[in-house]
Each structure stands twice: as C-alpha cells, then as structure tokens.
C-alpha cells in the first residue's frame, strides 16, 4: 500500500510481518566484496524507504564538504585529495535510507500496539516501522505509550532527577551523538554532580584506550588515511571491513596499487579480506577486482596474543642474524623504555603451544614475520575481534610492542590504527563522555563554568548493568543507542532497566530499549544527521564529528524532517537542563541551544586542540587534532616515552565438547540496527538465529548441518542459555563458532569482561549445544 508524504514522495508502509526463522536460506559464501550488487542493493533500500527524490538528495550530500557525515561508520574521507561524488558504501547508504525514511511512528502506532504486543517483536521489525514523530510517555499501570507535550516531558524529567540523588542518575551515550551535543550532555551530568556517563565505547574499543594510553600516551590511532595508502605492510586483524567499514577497502586497494602488502588475520574468511570489486572502477565492474590479502591467517578466536608474541620472537631472531636490518635501535634508545625486559621475554618461544593457541602453523607465522621484517613502514589495524576478550588489553599492548620494535610511529605509512565503528564514538570521548575523566579536563570545566565538577568516577556500561540490577538507578537517560540490545547478559539487563524509576530515550526510531523500560518512560524524537536543523533565531545550525583519524569536520543535514515535532539533540539537552537546574544556573543553556557557535566557543577554551574552533571547523576539510606519536614521534605517557610491555601468554581454551563462540554483525546490520535479512557475503539470508561451525567440529560434536539446537554458555560455574539456533556448517577456524549479536548477547555473562577495560567478552564465550526440543514434544 502506498502513502503520500509531506514532500510529495510515494512510499510503502512499514512491513507487518516479523522475522520467520523457518524461512532461513543458506548459500555458499562469497569470495569478493562490493561490486555492482552493492550499488543495486543500496539504491533499492533508499527508494523503498525514502523514495527517489529524497534518496538522491541525501546521497549527493553524504560525506561531502557541504553535506552531512554518514551516520554509519567513522572511516575518514581524504583531506588532501579529491572526493568521489559517491563518497559512501553500501551499508552507509542503508544507514542513510533508514534515517531519511518517510515512514513515521506516531500516536496511531502506539495506540495500536501495546507493550505486551511489542515485547516479542525483533529489532528488525521495530526499526522498520519508521521515524519517531512525537514525544510519548508510559506511566505505571499504562499498557500503551501515549503522546505528551515537550513541555510536560521536560518537566517530568526535571521532577524525577530532582527527587533523587546524582549518583542514582545515569546518562548513556551512543557513538552517533555529535561533538556539540556530547559536550552539553556531559556538562549536564556533571552539573548535577555525577560522572555516570557510560557509552558504547565501553563495549567496543575501551580495551584499545586501556592499552594505548599507558604505552603511547594517547588512546587513539596514530595514522592518517594517506598513511594507509603509503604503507609497505598493513595487518588487518580481528576486523571485517567488507561489512563494517567498506570504504576501508578502497584505502587497502590504493595501498596495494602503491606496492604495499596486506596480511589479514581473522577466524572467518570474510569476503572483504579476500577480494574487493570497487563499483566505481572499471576493474570492479567488469574485471576481477583487487585481491586484498596477500596472506590470510585463519586464527583461532582469542589466539592473537600468542601470534603477536611469536612475531616479536621471530623479528628479534632475524635482527640477531642480520644486525641493524629489523629493529630500530636509535628510536628505541631515545623514545622508549622497557625494551630489555621485552627482549628477554621474547627470547624463547614454545612453538607447540603457539600453534595450539593460534591454530596456525609455524610456517604461516614465519611468513608473516618475514613480511614484517622486510617492511620499513607497517600499520596494524584492528577492531572488535581483539577488544572483547579477558586478555584483550594485553593483546593490544603486544601490538604496540611490535610497532615500537621497528619504530613504526611518526613516519609515513606507519602506526597503530584502531578502526572505530560508530560515526562519532571517538569524538564523544574527546568531548568528555567518560566515566573516568582526567583531572585536567575537569579543571578546565571548573574554570570555564565557574563551579566544581564531581571527581569521583562514575559507572561504565557494565557497572551500569550491575547498578540497574541492584535497583541503584532511579533515572536512566539514553542519548541515542539501544542499551537493552547492546549490553551483555540480556535477561538480567532487561530486568534491571525495568527497575529504574524513569527511563528517557532520545531516539530517531523505535528499538528494544523502548519496550523494556522503567516504571515511567519517555521517548523523545530527535533530528537525525540527514535532517535540516533550522528552528533557531540565527537560522540553520551545523554540528561536528571526529573520524577514526582524529579529523574534526562539519556535518549539516539538508532534508526536510518527517515531523514538525522533532527537536535537535542540543535543544533537548538544554531543555532537560533548564527543567532540572533552572534558568538561573551558571551555565547559559538557552544560548547554547539557540546558537551552536556558543557551544564551540566553550569547547575551544576547555579541550586542547580545539582553539579557534568556530573558524577552523568552517574550513573545507576541517582540522586534525594533535597526536604526539604521529606528529612529533613523542609519547605523553607518565614516563614521557613509549612503553614496552611484558605479559604472560594467554588464550581461550574450550573443554571437550565445547567451542569458543564469538558474536559478529550480518552484512545487513549496523550495531543493533538491522537493515534487512541478507548476510550475503556469508550466504545466510531470511534468518538470524544461526551458529556458524566448522563441518569437522559438527561431526566431532555429533551434530549435522541445519540441526536446531539450544546454546548453553558456561562461565565461572554458571550457565546462560539461548534457544532455537540453527547450526550451519561454515569454514570458520576449527574449535570456534560465530553467531550474530544481539541474539547471542544473552550468552555473555555480565562478569565475563576484559581486564582493565571492563569490556564485555562478546568474543570469548565457551559454549556447547543440545538438540532443541519443542515444548510438548
């Protein structure tokens, strides 16, 4: 059925049917990523959601100098070369289609669907309904959400916050939040007196920051996009760029064209690691594409620490055979500390245990070491495949050891590259979204706003889960995101959210967190990246974001919002603060909401690197934040040098009859949002409750391909269970398995976390299977 929208576009209603796992289809995995299929899928999704005209207008603006930043991943655009007219990937196009949709969710939807009805709906169904179009509330005893005015909504928030204590208020943040919003949001929380500022970074790259800050003095990557183009060797570890950061494939192709080599390290043979068919090039359309990985190391889940220790051992051996050819002694002597202890620790290696831990042969590891020894400019990239295990921080410090060993900092084509997922998760942390803020940041806030910020550390995401479960959270505010689906130990998390007195969700579309809400719950609809933000005394406003390479640039939507009742995120934060703190507070919230330049002026005086923010962000390519390892080959650690680390070998081991399970995204997914049901590179479609298992493991465990099973995880003597998953024979590493999140999040015990970072162990579950039996069978 067709409906006519406010700009004259014609569009279909949201789907009424939810996922039917009986419709599951399995095909052979693909051997190449992108190609013409990526183009056709992107256009189809855009037209279905937003119509032709709206889709074209948005696509021409995405990631352009005068447009908006893609609401998908944080991969950077070039600041030195020409940008493509189509500066986006397939999954970016899907994200834009989801946001620019003309489907709306208003009073009629909430009247039709009770909470009991929505309880069983999947993320796919909820997200497909469309954009939230007006604020709604549900109070104790209500069965449905119902409309509420903005004024009454903010008054309700102020009433609840003022009725409790700051330590019982939590302010969660999604990585989509822009810099200006994030700065206001953390200021609001700290104005109340709390550092309870968990964010999605706690659940993804917190391990990266925990490893990098003590070793190189900065929690961010140390490379530019151009560095990847000019690297002699790039290691892509624990990462699936074909689905999660598709534009990275273009950078890797350019590296290959410049003579560079790529080593891919991953438990799954992902299509994007094998071959890239660039739909914007002739070779990608009618040719064979570009082979990405010169070497593919199919490592066991959790075996990366063993691999990096072995590589260090082999590099030191080669240096001993050919002095001065591998190790950068001058750099080490002048800029690092701890090399002697590292050299001693890597002087011996148990090859039998290394092969057992990694699932790789000595010959495979030696070949990779030879490539590293020959390279004078190496970049190591990683993502969540390395950050979500108990020993993740130690693994990442071992990466830093390898980079320090060869002096791969502060020179072209070299450095550390944690690839962030969400579009501004790095910028949010820069703006102060962190439960453990540095004293220098708090002191700068004190000086700027004239009152004392709280110093006690707040809750991170996992600690928030514990606090919710204990009933220690009275008010939970979520700036974007979907905390209920993103967190681990799903059943306990959802019960905890229901214990909160008030949950506030600042969102663009319905999601699971809206269904498992507090005693009272508000859903506040906000503008998205693609929407124009022009309801201000000084006219249209713009925001800014930070990409994975520390570049700050503008983002300004141009599409007409689907509802007149949407407010921008800065306005929502300001009005929450005014309703709670009053207009006579020392922070002028109204001025910031009316003119975002005022926010940026505050930022420029608080955060180093943002001096003259308003002028610099208006330049064509924005500006790059300072980065000592990259800029000056120096390290702002407590010792003023780069730090070698020595930790014992550790890897994941499953007892007999068990496998190590990791969670992954499908190709039709971004974080907890499902764009569709086609994970086409892996050959899985129309269903999501699947477990990918090596055929040999299926045989050894007594199962067959397509068996329906219940999955049981074991941790610290306790079990978690997720029912009705289909086993799929798949060429993953032996001893390992993979399932989609958030469906498998229920299997992650909330105490299974990475040491130091407290990141949930989404890639560290010990599981076994039992055949599923229907009730009454």
Automatic annotation (TrEMBL):
Its recorded name reads Formate dehydrogenase major subunit
Q: What EC number is given for this enzyme? A: 1.17.1.9
Q: Does the keyword Metal-binding apply?
A: yes
Pfam families named in the record:
Molybdopterin, Molydop_binding
Enzyme kind, highest EC tier? oxidoreductase
| Family recorded in the similarity comment | Belongs to the prokaryotic molybdopterin-containing oxidoreductase family.
Please spell out the taxonomic lineage of the organism that makes this protein: Bacteria, Bacillati, Actinomycetota, Actinomycetes, Micrococcales
Q: Which UniProt keywords apply?
A: 4Fe-4S, Iron, Iron-sulfur, Metal-binding, Molybdenum, Oxidoreductase
Which residues does the UniProt record annotate as the domain Molybdopterin dinucleotide-binding?
A: 659-764
Cofactor(s) annotated in UniProt: [4Fe-4S] cluster; Mo-bis(molybdopterin guanine dinucleotide)
